[in-house]
Amino acid sequence: MAATETLTAERILEATEEVLRRYGPAKATVVDVARALGVSHGSVYRHFRTKAALREAVTERWLERNVTELRPYAEGPGPAAERLTGWLEHLFALKRQKAGGDPELMATFQVLIGENSAVVDRHVEHLVAQIAAVLADGVRDGVFAAGDHGVTATARAVFDATDRFHDPAHAADWAAPGIEDDFRAVVSLVTRGLRA
Amino acid sequence: MAATETLTAERILEATEEVLRRYGPAKATVVDVARALGVSHGSVYRHFRTKAALREAVTERWLERNVTELRPYAEGPGPAAERLTGWLEHLFALKRQKAGGDPELMATFQVLIGENSAVVDRHVEHLVAQIAAVLADGVRDGVFAAGDHGVTATARAVFDATDRFHDPAHAADWAAPGIEDDFRAVVSLVTRGLRA
DNA sequence: GGAATGACAAATATTGAAATCTGTCATCGG
DNA sequence: CCGATGACAGATTTCAATATTTGTCATTCC
Question: Which residues bind DNA (chains A, B) (predicted)?
Fold first, then answer.
């Protein structure tokens, strides 16, 4: 039906996301994706060497959106301390919203995450770099101390310390009552630890 | 063969642990446990109402050992700051050792953990209480600040912030190079955050 | 010429019948 | 009398036959 438009990697990725959303990671097949696009599955293989590569590309796209959403905090103006808490709160809110709003989609996402740890590692690098940018501003302004092992190591420590509030592995906890308090307590502990 | 000894809950738990170790969580059956003890499976049901209850008891025993191992840091003498880092390091070392030394056993353990979240929650309470005891000593001695929301909330924040280094969900990461540095960076950040 | 197709082999997943396991309980034996 | 037994029904798991999917490639079509 959509055979009029040319088949691009982008269109295949959109269809794949839709198929994953509808059937889940276990049942979504390349044939399903091709059917959704009204083409033969052979055509999909022209754009993606394997099913794994296709799923990896979807995962990458998905994660990339988070980085984009958080960029304002990393680059935006304002005091570094507020930008850091804003960044952490926004990340947690994003994740919680996704996990709470559509648990099945979150489960699908978690499977993809598990399949593509290399992609995830690269994504974590991006996020840590965003934290590091905020920390660097804070150090420059004298509100944060440069950590014992450099800003990047400290940024990673901030990311690791808040792991429970952004790692999909903990998504099941995010609906628990009191999780907000736990989050605030950790953020408070971490920001105290950063103070100059 | 061991039919001479009386059948106790304790002996059943030992046999169950052995069976779990040998066959893994998916294959370990109540019949296997009974066979290992040389009794009928009906006898096992005299001591544990269900297979789930049996597994829960094993999980509880397993976790209890950790609490015992860490008690010296919680109660022992010495400066609170050193006891805290010692406690955190010992916990991480314990977990890493188990995960690295016998990955299959760790996987088994992780399945049991997942099945028995109520038991795990109680166990976490115990661990947080141990941290809280150290923090309370530190506050008394003037080396730690009482957190904004009380010692227990702060203790939980310490536990949460170091989650990546004790939660079995992250066991796969514990063999990565640089994990030691990551751990030290988080502990450093946290202890800074606690200082009076 | 270059993108799209669909037949095909090998790998993977599904299915349903057979086997095993869980949990109960009437009976046994010390 | 009281713990242990094993036969049993219903639930779950296993296994092997069957069907689907993945990935390739010679051929088709624009």
Answer: 29-48
How does pLDDT run along chain A (196 residues), one tens digit per residue? 334 578 999 999 999 999 999 999 999 999 999 999 999 999 999 999 999 999 999 999 999 999 999 999 999 899 999 999 999 999 999 999 999 999 999 999 999 999 999 999 999 999 999 999 999 999 999 999 988 899 999 999 999 999 999 999 999 999 999 999 999 999 999 999 999 8
CB contact, 8 Å: B182 with chain A? yes
Q: What Rg, from alpha-carbon coordinates, does chain B have?
A: 20
- B121 and B147 housed in the same domain: yes
Task: Evaluate whether residue A158 is within a structural domain.
Answer: yes
Both ends of chain B: CA-CA distance in Å?
A: 62
**Angle between helix A151-161 and A117-140 (nearest 10):** 120
Pair of tokens at residue A74: 């990393």
Residues of B in contact with A163 (CB under 8 A): 163-164, 170
**Alpha helices, H only, B28-147:** 30-37, 41-47, 51-75, 80-101, 103-115, 117-140
Residues of A in contact with B113 (CB under 8 A): none
The whole-angstrom separation of Cα A29 and Cα B138 is 57
CB of B166 less than 8 A from some CB of A: no
B180 and B101 belong to one structural domain: yes
Determine whether the interchain pair A191/B194 forms a contact, defined as Cβ–Cβ distance below 8 Å.
Answer: no
